[in-house]
Predict the structure.
Amino acid sequence: MEKKVKPFLLFCLLILSIDSVGQDTNRFKSNMLILNVGLKQSFLYTYANKPLFADGFFEFLTKENFGIKGSCTQYITDRTPDKMFQNLTGIAFGGAYYLKLPNPAHKLSASVQPGISWVNLTSIHAGNDVPSSLIPTMTISLNYMLVFSRFTNFYVNVSHQSAYVRGTKNNSINLSGFSITGGLGFHLLMKTKKSDK
Amino acid sequence: MRNTFILFFIILSLQITAICQTNTEQKAGEFSLGVRNSIGFVYENDWNRIAFGSGGQFRIRFSEKVNSDWFIDFLQGDLEDFGKRTDVHIGWSVMYYPLNEQKFIQPYILAGHCFEFLRMEENANFSNYAERKSASVQAGAGIHFHISPKADISLVGQYMMHFGTNIDITRTPSITFNKPGGVSLQDHFLLHLSINYMLFDLWKRK
């Protein structure tokens, strides 16, 4: 019991200390560039596969509550033995809208990103003669950032992705699923307005 | 029925041109860049073929009430259980805002023209395919949701009519794609969800 309570207390103390420190330094402003990298665990809706990806995104905040967002994803491996992918590389672009929260150390944003992915399926799913496919994708995500210093943040992202590989021996392969991503981010103010000083 | 659509399109174009003459030019020159996802319903004897795609567009605004949309879409869909179709649309539309004020929700109507590249191929046998290029006209309506003064999320539905050679499919004894030649019509209905950001003013007024 004690073992469970201690980490929880430590976590609460960490949050409280961030809350007290974060008031001035952690405010996101327009012209801020955010670069985040992390690991993405996906769960497909129609297959048992659980592929793991390296994931990264950048955001440029044009206003305090809106950012232009670009993402990239690279397949690493799968938790299931019957792997779905030989390879997957994806990019997506869109925008992120930041919800207003009372504490500037906590950032919550929602984003929509159309994109494309270059996919190689395994022969288990696509047949023996498996060509690469360029496929359209759509990602809708909710992103939480814990801004714990002036330049760095931790983030957790929950997203839904729609994607289909067409034309395999089994007709379409539905790659739609949801993902949980976590990682570390850096943010830097590129240009300071007079009003921000 | 199709002639009615052509007539509707011509009348709509003329009306937009006439309305443009009297508009203010407060927002003229705004250049926006955006990305979008599309769902396409393709008519081939039935509205039974659904495609999904990604794309992008830029907008150049001519006046307070008239905007233009220049787009490229990349869509893929199933041909029942035997093949796939890939559509690439490159085109433009003129958008007209009927309401005077820009609020959070801003409805609009649009009409325009595009070129299409279509490829149909058999599942798991990619050497068996047919391709065609065609031109089309489109018209529809949409809504901007202005989430910030420069950014919007837009939802639009549009009807698109292609003029080009048909690709006939024969399934027995094996799958073959034939192009009979001549001009035939093919209908699409498209839904787009896009996110756009106004980057700069092309006219650079003070």
Residues 18-23 of chain B have pLDDT under 50 and may be disordered. The radius of gyration of chain B is 19 Å. Residues 28 and 63 of chain B are 4 Å apart (CA to CA). Helices of chain B lie at 2-20.
